């Protein structure tokens, strides 16, 4: 009989604090520190946890097979398959088209724009992973705001929040739900009330959460969101590009005449980057490094204020006008489009130093500015390490923008002028998703099998190309799941979860069960703001189930409270990846999320807890 059941039978007896527990608590503490400080990438942290747990096997009980079991876990493979299926839907352009059609009637009415944003996001997020849904809709919603003379700031936080509440409609709406179902099934041996969840097991409560959240976002939330980005904002003005971009002319007899752009860039120094070459009225955006320069060419360069004066001393070029003159660059000149690129969750750019020349070579775009955590980075872009949510202002040719929109490294904050989608595959992709959901809902096969079958079907029918499988997967999420799953097992097997549950029962034993349930919701929501939602679920579900048993409550109710709270992180940009995706394009500050999200979190905590009590009892 497990420590959980023993706790339920003898709630007044304090479990003995063992060395095993202390060691596991130490590993949990290490995990929390690494998640909060982000000293290591999230996938590296996950691998480190596996290594530490196995090395400390005498105390953690995690042998090598158990340590790597997270990679073969049903939840991990299911999430992987669902990400690929979401990628297949993205290739068809279905989500973007849905967003455009829902927004077509909005016009310049903010309330209609909010309604369209929520309605286009929440239902879709119930069946597709909400992370790629937001990534796909950021440019659509930004364009809706610009066409309706509305600040994008008013719509982008609602986009993120609507995707989070929409993810609670079904089992497959978010990876957190799938992981919670797997943990619940594993704990079923100790708690008869717990089991793996069916496809629509909590849809009735999810629908109520969606409706309440939507009403708040449409009628209340937008009043609390400042207009951080002006309507139809001029990107160049917003990023103060004029202060850092100047024109220089290649004078007759210049030693760089006949040299390549790469040679010129090296000669200028690391602080100066050539972003355009203007020749006889024709402008080359993000010019190729092997392009030859001629006498009379105008080079548009991006540099720091201090380095501008250095240009006056370079032989063979001269400033056109003066450093305060308007540079030869425009927001959208038909040849080059200025837009923002958000560094995505699984981008190869995360942790890399920004080298404009290397960036131009790989992405075909010239870097003009950088925004981090809502603040502009004016001086010295070169050499800065990039992080998730960083927003780069770039200029790129239209064709390059199309290619960038199809990459997973960045999220393009405006729609490409000539998007290339497999629109003819929409009926097939939709039929496959319906089949996946139906097979799992009817319990013909588990969701793991139906999702994998759906992946095969998308490849066979041409919705996805075989080489696109790996690009569709957010590998840091997969590694995170693989790392935290054995951590959760160690917490259970060592008795640590039972010990923590005892402390909760002792401190909250005088409170009504409904209040204890609400406190678990709030606790999960707060923890999720500083660590990942999946890690919150792994660490708190065993504790919540044991605490419920300790006070004679329904463990399933407590599991649902943790799951719903972990999937709705509204208080800051860090707790949920979709919040990071809108951070830069919305020009938000950290406090904006709390201002809008705290009332919503409080309202949904009450609605969710009362709904759980009504549908499943406490």
Automatic annotation (TrEMBL):
Segments crossing the lipid bilayer: 20-37, 44-62, 74-94, 114-138, 202-225, 428-460, 472-491, 498-524, 530-549, 556-576, 596-616
Keyword Transmembrane appears in the UniProt entry: yes
Membrane topology reported for the UniProt record: Multi-pass membrane protein
Compartmental location: Membrane
Ranges where the RCK C-terminal domain occurs: 233-317, 326-410
GO biological process: potassium ion transport
UniProt keywords, alphabetically: Membrane, Repeat, Transmembrane, Transmembrane helix, Transport
Annotated SUPFAM superfamilies: TrkA C-terminal domain-like
Protein name per its UniProtKB record: Di-and tricarboxylate transporter
Source species: Natronorubrum texcoconense
Upper classification of the organism: Archaea, Methanobacteriati, Methanobacteriota, Stenosarchaea group, Halobacteria
């Amino acid at each position: 009989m497990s420590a959980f059941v023993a706790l339920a039978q003898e709630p007044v007896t304090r479990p003995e604090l063992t060395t095993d527990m202390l060691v596991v608590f130490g590993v949990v503490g290490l995990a929390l520190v690494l998640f909060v400080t982000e000293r290591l990438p999230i996938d590296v942290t996950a691998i480190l946890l596996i290594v530490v747990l196995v090395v400390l096997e005498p105390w953690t009980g995690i042998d090598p097979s158990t340590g790597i079991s997270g990679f073969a876990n049903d939840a991990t493979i299911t999430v992987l398959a669902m990400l690929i299926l979401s990628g297949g839907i993205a290739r068809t352009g279905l989500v973007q088209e849905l967003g455009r059609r829902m927004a077509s009637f909005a016009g310049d009415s903010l309330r209609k724009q909010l309604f369209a944003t929520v309605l286009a996001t929440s239902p879709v997020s119930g069946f597709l992973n909400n992370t790629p849904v937001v990534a796909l809709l950021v440019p659509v919603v930004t364009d809706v705001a610009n066409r309706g003379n509305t600040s994008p700031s008013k719509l982008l936080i609602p986009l993120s929040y609507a995707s989070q509440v929409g993810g609670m409609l079904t089992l497959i709406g978010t990876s957190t739900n799938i992981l919670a179902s797997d943990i619940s099934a594993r704990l079923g041996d100790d708690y008869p009330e717990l089991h793996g969840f069916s496809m629509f097991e909590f849809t009735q409560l999810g629908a109520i959460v969606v409706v309440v959240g939507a009403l708040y976002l449409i009628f209340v939330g937008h009043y609390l969101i400042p207009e951080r980005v002006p309507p139809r904002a001029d990107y160049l003005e917003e990023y103060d590009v004029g202060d850092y971009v100047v024109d220089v002319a290649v004078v007759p007899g210049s030693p760089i005449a006949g040299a390549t752009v790469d040679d010129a860039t090296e000669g200028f120094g690391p602080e100066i980057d050539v972003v355009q070459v203007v020749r006889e009225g024709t402008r080359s955006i993000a010019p190729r490094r092997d392009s030859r320069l001629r006498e009379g060419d105008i080079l548009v360069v991006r540099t720091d204020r201090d380095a501008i004066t250095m240009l006056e001393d370079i032989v063979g070029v001269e400033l056109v006008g003066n450093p305060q003159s308007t540079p030869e660059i425009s927001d959208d000149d038909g040849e080059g489009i200025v837009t923002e690129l958000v560094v995505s969750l699984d981008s190869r750019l995360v942790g890399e130093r920004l080298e404009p020349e290397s960036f131009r070579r790989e992405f075909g775009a010239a870097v003009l500015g950088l925004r981090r955590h809502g603040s502009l980075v004016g001086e010295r872009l070169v050499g800065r390490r990039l992080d998730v949510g960083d927003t780069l202002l770039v200029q790129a040719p239209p064709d390059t923008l199309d290619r960038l929109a199809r990459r997973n490294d960045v999220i393009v904050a405006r729609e490409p002028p000539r998007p290339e989608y497999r629109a003819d595959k929409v009926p097939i992709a939709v039929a496959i998703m319906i089949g996946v959901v139906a097979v799992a809902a009817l319990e013909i096969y588990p969701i793991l099998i139906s999702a994998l079958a759906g992946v095969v079907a998308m490849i066979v029918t041409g919705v996805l190309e075989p080489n696109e499988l790996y690009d569709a997967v957010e590998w840091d999420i997969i590694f995170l799941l693989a790392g935290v799953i054995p951590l959760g097992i160690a917490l259970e097997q060592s008795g640590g979860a039972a010990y923590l549950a005892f402390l909760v029962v002792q401190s909250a034993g005088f409170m009504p069960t409904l209040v204890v349930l609400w406190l678990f919701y709030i606790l999960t929501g707060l923890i999720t703001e500083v660590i990942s939602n999946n890690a919150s679920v792994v660490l708190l579900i065993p504790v919540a189930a044991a605490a419920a048993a300790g006070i004679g409550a329904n463990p399933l109710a407590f599991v649902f409270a943790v799951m719903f709270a972990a999937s709705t992180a509204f208080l800051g940009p860090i707790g949920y990846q979709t919040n990071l995706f809108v951070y830069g394009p919305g020009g938000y500050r950290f406090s904006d999320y709390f201002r809008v999200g705290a009332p919503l979190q409080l309202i949904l905590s009450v609605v969710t807890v009362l709904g759980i009590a009504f549908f499943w009892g406490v």
